[in-house]
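Section 5.1 Outputs to date
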Amino acid sequence: MPPAGLVAVDDDHYYGRPEDGSPTAPDSDEAEASSSAMPRVLTMLSVVLERLVARNDQVCLDLATAETSRLSVFHGVKAPNISISKYLERIYRYTNCSPSCFVVGYIFIDRLVHRNPSSPVVSLNVHRLLVTSIMVATKVLDDVHYNNAFYARVGGVSNEELNRLELELLFLLDFSVMVTSRVFESYCLHLEKEMLWYSSERKIEKLPPLSLDNGEEALTEEE
């Protein structure tokens, strides 16, 4: 059983608050303040990834197909109990990385998928892909960033595993980690469009049945 207050990732890894002794780790008040002002890009990214993962999990059925993919190195023993949305919030809250790192991390994941079309992003690998790609993005974009050990603690994996995942990511990308401003803007636009489409879809789902004044039965969406 995991210690109190921690969320199990796999059998032997747990999410907990990063070590208090870390020199610039935010305290609880700072964490609460930052959580109330999460960048919109986190919401957009979580919506896109959650839909992608849900679709791929259905295609892969019992995930047997994903187990043989080139991204299987990022697979956990089981899908973590923490949602993608909460996981992204956790990374942002404790690492203080710039919001742009999340977009660039998403670009890295998209490049992996395009280079390995038979290797889907699924619930078994999405969390490790995120923490690894975002960590690499911070090294590319941010002047000041945490080391691998701190990201491992935040991400719920061991330092040794994250070091290995970082190398795997870089080699799978052929060390192509540079992102032009044009590519960055195109991905931001894509995320924005996906978010707008998702929002409009949710609004349609929430529309109440139409009641007719002449006493006829209410129209349903199927009709």
